[in-house]
Specification:
alpha+beta, four-stranded antiparallel sheet, 5 helices
Length: 215
């Protein structure tokens, strides 16, 4: 269940749908939602401005209905690992991009969107052609862009820390192997060094005295 804090804008908390259906979202065990929203409710205003006058001739009704259904059936999610987008009224189109693939993040606002507090965040990936994922008409796009940038930086720091731990572990393994080899060599050297006994000394002395008598 999504907590209320995740349904608010990163800064202001205005204009975000209170109830989000995220049954379509499948996360890893260690993946956590940082932000989730539908498009801003005021993003339907342009459709209303066009559709309401035309509703007198029944042309504007489909325009308003389509805009509202798109607003209700679109979800955007930011986790600690990546970005998710779900669109579609009758069908469902889900896109996901991991932070390791993100190359560039930007946001834009039209004149109407800027005055009403919504805009779009665009994400490009390494090796991709143009914008790969777009959060359309979301509340406070600048804050969402900053949130995504922070999560990407945090992921890079965690990855760097993990690599450093791996290198340290490898160094410790090598040091233990060297110490073990040195200890084994020392023990082997002591075993090969001959130790003179009393009988050996006596035998050498007798042989020396016999040699002198012969001379």
């Amino acid at each position: 269940m999504l907590s209320p804090s995740l349904q608010e804008e990163p800064k202001t908390g205005n204009g975000v749908t209170a109830d989000l259906d995220l049954d379509w979202l499948s996360l890893d065990d260690d993946e956590e939602i940082r932000w989730a929203s539908t498009p801003h409710r005021y993003s339907v205003v342009p459709a209303l401005l066009v559709g309401v006058p035309l509703s007198l001739v029944l042309v504007g009704i489909p325009i308003v209905a389509a805009s509202y259904l798109q607003y209700k059936n679109t979800n955007y999610v930011v986790t600690n690992k990546g970005l998710y987008s779900k669109r579609g009224i009758l069908s469902r189109d889900v896109k996901q991009i991991g932070f390791e693939k993100v190359q560039n993040i930007s946001y834009s606002q039209s004149a109407i969107g800027s005055s009403l507090g919504y805009g779009s965040v665009e994400v490009s990936t390494a090796g991709g052609s143009g914008v790969e994922l777009r959060f359309r008409s979301i509340p406070d796009p600048a804050s969402v862009q900053e949130l995504i940038a922070r999560e990407i930086d945090a992921g890079k720091r965690d990855s760097a820390d993990g690599d450093a731990d791996d290198v340290l572990a490898e160094i410790l393994v090598e040091l233990r192997a060297i110490r073990s080899a040195v200890t084994d060599d020392g023990a082997g050297g002591d075993a090969e060094t001959p130790t003179a006994t009393g009988e050996d000394v006596g035998a050498e002395r007798t042989a020396s005295e016999t040699a002198r008598e012969d001379r």
